[in-house]
Design goal:
GO molecular function, one term: DNA binding
CATH architecture of the largest domain: Orthogonal Bundle
Pfam family, one: Fe_dep_repr_C
Structural class: mainly alpha
Protein name: HTH-type transcriptional regulator MntR
Keywords: Activator, Cytoplasm, DNA-binding, Manganese, Metal-binding, Repressor, Transcription, Transcription regulation
CATH class of the largest domain: Mainly Alpha
Radius of gyration: 18 Å
Distance between the termini: 44 Å
CATH superfamily of the largest domain: Winged helix-like DNA-binding domain superfamily/Winged helix DNA-binding domain
Number of helices: 7
Strand content: 5-15%
Family: Belongs to the DtxR/MntR family.
Helix content: over 70%
CATH topology of the largest domain: Arc Repressor Mutant, subunit A
Strand order of the largest sheet: 1-2
Length: 141
């Protein structure tokens, strides 16, 4: 299982390849706001763990293992963002909150959050009821 730092890299690499068709060390460094030398070290670790294939000066490709995990990490991130919206977290805070919790939740917890998101998406009146409860609680404070 990848470390939280490895997960951040895999998620970003997966997104870059999905968006642009490729991911260069400089692109990853810019996206994660780290030095290219840090990216090179991590990419070498990811290569050693068979998440990707890296050839110096030639670029990198995710392995099937890396693609599978990258896709799941992107799903987790997007699901948690949607969950935060549903429960009424301010949009300006969502990214920071998701980054703070995503590595600390089990996949079982992620699956249950997915069930809850689906529950609210299937019937928007449920979301309206939640919003009313939240407003009532705010008015009590």
């Amino acid at each position: 299982m990848p470390t939280p730092s490895m997960e951040d890299y895999l998620e970003r690499i997966y997104l870059l390849i999905d968006e642009k068709g490729y991911a260069r060390v400089s692109d990853i460094a810019d996206a994660l706001e780290v030095h290219p030398s840090s990216v090179t070290k991590m990419v070498q670790k990811l290569d050693a763990n068979e998440y990707l294939v890296y050839e110096k000066y030639r670029g990198l490709m995710l392995t099937s293992k890396g693609k599978k995990i990258g896709k799941r990490l992107v799903y987790r991130h997007e699901l948690l963002e949607e969950f935060m919206r549903i429960i009424g977290v301010d949009d300006a805070r969502i990214y920071v909150d998701v980054e703070g919790i995503e590595h600390h939740l089990s996949w079982e917890a992620i699956d249950r959050i997915g069930d809850l998101v689906q529950y609210f998406e299937e019937d928007t009146s449920r979301l309206d009821q939640l919003r009313n409860v939240q407003k009532d609680n705010e008015n009590k404070d």
